[in-house]
Design brief:
The complex is a heterodimer of chains A (370) and B (98). Chain A has 370 residues and is mostly beta strands. Chain A contains no helices and 30 strands. In chain A, the strands form eight sheets. Chain A has a four-stranded antiparallel beta sheet with strand order 3-2-1-30, with no helix packed on it. In chain A, strands 4-5-6-7 form a four-stranded antiparallel beta sheet, with no helix packed on it. The radius of gyration of chain A is 19 Å and the shape is globular. The termini of chain A are close together. The relative contact order of chain A is 0.13. Chain B is built from three helices and five strands. In chain B, a hairpin with a 2-residue loop joins strand 3 and strand 4 (67-68). The chains are: A mainly beta (370), B alpha+beta (98).
Amino acid sequence: MSSVRLLVGTRKGAFILTADGSRRDWEISGPHFGGWEIYHLKGSPADPSRIYASRWNAWFGQIVQRSDDGGVSWRAVGNEFAYDGEGATHQWYDGTPHPFEFKRVWHFEPSASDPDTVYAGVEDAALFRSIDGGLTWQELAGLRRQGSSAQWQPGAGGLCLHTILLDPRQDRIWAAISAAGAFRSDDGGGNWRPINRGLRSDYLPAPEAEIGHCVHRIAAHPARPQTLYMQKHWDVMRSDDAGQTWYEISGNLPSDFGFVIEVHAHEPETIYVVPIKSDSEHYPPDGALRVWRSRRGGHDWEPLSSGLPQSNCWVNVLREAMAVDSLDPCGVYFGTTGGQVYASSDSGDHWEAIVRDLPPVLSVEAQTLP
Amino acid sequence: MIRVVLPYHLRTLARVEGEVQLELSGPLTFGELIDALERRYPALRGTLRDPSTRRRRPFLRFFACGEDLSHQPLEALLPEAVSCGAEPILVVGAVAGG
């Protein structure tokens, strides 16, 4: 019988939640790396026992952890992220040039075919790759050299590269940076260009500028990588041409601000968001936690509230904190800053908290195991 | 022999309990001490100083012989009492709540 393993990163450690294919009873292990901020954990599609974890704290900096046995044991691998070349700057908050300085890893994206190849999205925004299982890291410097990086400016959360999508069928890579925008490489990470046409951000002096958009998250279905879904700072967006152009699909959402966006494992036009009231009030509208689902690729959305708190709920759901499994029916999961992890084993129709009192959840990833 | 007292998280990371003892002798600089620690415990690489800038991490302090030695350059020699193992060097994290 299949099983599901959830990899949950929190402000105070990592937790691993496992259940069989019924997804009724969950076993929780952790905290792993107690007391450290775990920005992200992700397993290799090629070898699910291989998991990479980003472990960081303000005292001791970045540690990269690797497990080869599904999270039972871990070892520290390489944590040297040296930027290629010297002297490059981005904009600081006050508009002055500021050198790129490594702070932490926000996201790991393991290769679909090779467990030893993994990409890391870091702050200050850059993309790194390891081909030796995380022992050493090399920057894919074409991203910062494509011409706009001197204009990149951090959002309040820092200048972070948080989204990496790998096209399963070709050498195409997408990356997203807050608050610079989305970028695409068609040659495996050598050359890059901004792909932000159609985005509009009213906090920019030129709202439709090529650079400066605070992209929160991009998601795609593996079978339809031409279609991308984006939760931007404000606005839920869609592209049908691999990011060349974007159009808004916020439709009837109660707020188009939010962080997460995810695609159903078997229905490429079924997508999920968690609307958050505003960029000044990071909690659900009316204190009612609702996932909104569109079965038509956007525009028309339905609220999903069964099993979710509908009053006095003032948590946030951060950009890495939603995932789907690939069972049928599709399982959907998300974690909150209140420490709950909610699960639905029926594509979002019904939810339950499978754990309630973790530290604030930073990331959730789901592995479907044979 | 050099004696080093690491903070909790670094002892956990290095998988050691209590004081760390490094088989080193003679006059030794701060930088050589950190190099030796990282060689003996590879999991500590980059935790005491930024691997790119080589600067001490700002939330850490080095105390020995009743003094704060944190602002000594990496090329500075450790006190003789530390080099000969009479006194440990303490690595102390900034206190913080939350």
